[in-house]
Amino acid sequence: MACWAELEEAAPELAARGRDLIETFHFLLAGTIRRDGTPRISPVEAHIVEGHLMHAIIPGTLKARDLLRDPRVVLNAPVTNAGDPGAELKLRGGARSRWRMTHCARRRPTRSRP
């Protein structure tokens, strides 16, 4: 599975246009697969962090459960100008949870109270 940094290396112009769209809207539409096999479309906050496309999904939500069951996902930037095909971003792939790694790395030792 490719990361955003690999896309930037392989197709820098495409990655730059995609980054512009992500940074303009700050969200993407995520398509996941429900338990019954039908699609679910949900807006998700999106950021490019350290060469990875990250989208914020709250644990326990329906879309989070969809991705735990089936990690396939399609991401689409909002289309605001149907006449400009360069103003659209569509990605498909598999979601991976980074919560445990980032949560553990960000945890700070608790201070004892006097």
Please describe what this structure looks like.
- There is one protein chain.
- The chain is of the alpha+beta class and 114 residues long.
- The protein has a single domain, classed as Pnp Oxidase, Chain A (Roll), CATH 2.30.110.
- The chain contains 4 helices and 5 strands.
- The protein has helices at residues 4-10, 12-25, 62-69, 99-106; strands spanning 27-33, 39-49, 52-56, 72-76, 90-94.
- A 5-stranded antiparallel β-sheet has the order 3-2-1-4-5.
- A hairpin with a 5-residue loop joins β1 and β2 (39-49).
- α1 (4-10) packs across α2 (12-25).
- The N and C termini lie far apart (49 Å).
- 15% of the residues are buried.
- The model is unreliable at 100-114 (pLDDT under 50).
Q: Output mean pLDDT.
A: 83
And the CATH topology?
A: Pnp Oxidase, Chain A
Q: What structural class is derived from the secondary structure elements? A: alpha+beta
CATH class type: Mainly Beta
How are helices and strands ordered from N to C? HHEEEHEEH
Overall, the morphology is globular
Overall tally of structural domains = 1
What's the Cα radius of gyration?
16 Å
What is the rounded distance between the termini?
Answer: 49 Å
Q: Write the CATH architecture name.
A: Roll
Biggest pleated-sheet summary = 5 strands, antiparallel
Strand segment count: 5
What is the assigned CATH homologous superfamily?
A: Electron Transport, Fmn-binding Protein, Chain A
